[in-house]
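Field reference: "sequence" (input) and "structure" (output). Example, M23ase beta-sheet core domain-containing protein:
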Amino acid sequence: MSDDSKLRAYLFTVEIDGIETARFQKCEGLEAETYVYEVEEGGLNHNTRKFRGRTRFPNLILEKGITENDSLFNWFKETCLENKKLERKNGSVALKDTEGNEVKRWNFFRAFPCRWIGPKLVTNLGSDFAVERIGIAHEGVEVDNDLAEVSYGIATPVGKTWNDAQYVTSVWGKRNSFIVDNGEKTLSGHNGMDFAAPQGTRINAVKSGTVSKVENDEKNIHGYGKYIVITHEDGTSTLYAHQSKIIVYEGETVEAGEKIGEVGKTGKVTGPHLHLGYDGNKNGKFTNSEQLDDPAKLLYSDGN
Ligand SMILES: [Zn+2]
């Protein structure tokens, strides 16, 4: 049941030469492995030396698909069944969410279909072909995602360059909002940094890590609106609030500078901006400012 809903939640579409040809519920093989070989060198007897060999790309395996037009099937038929010619093509696999928004794209090169498993392969060779499984051999795959500016492993939180992140409208600890408690008006601290940017500006992972939370509720109790949390390898985490659009999913690994969403004004805000939170104390809590840290410590560190 949970597996089923997962399959329904995301969809892989296959484009050949820029034209969408099919949709699949599952995709495997978006990986690369570089062969490492060892040499036992004379004169150095206590360990071996390692060298980088060639990079190997496993076949793409697409499962449970529906063809949009004939071109994917014809390509397979001509290559595998009719043994006509080996027609290599470039293409891409795009991951889309339930609303049809593109989440991620991988490009593959010099590819040809090498395997097809369909329920009625022999009797039905026409269009509207229900695809069970297709294997595509290729000579390279790359993530179509240009990274934003990164220095010392830390990326600009908004836009493409650090210049785009210069409009800091609220810094850590600055008292910028009122809290009314028992009829008494007090000032509250600010547990992050605000970067003003136009609606739709790209938001980047400031540091590599794994997406540990995705909250799509615009009116959640924290006032963060649509936000995500990325947990980094050292146990610290960063939070990206008030987004208009989130393009990553829980469990996904992200690189520093990779686009994770877009600037918006969801939650408790007066205008579009990114609120960046930083948990340098490894608490994983973003509701209590006392347990958080100043994001500037992370952003403007020189890697030491
Ligand atoms: Zn803020």
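The pocket of zinc ion is lined by residues 170, 190, 192, 194, 275 (CB under 6 Å).
The CA atoms of residues 144 and 156 lie 19 Å apart.
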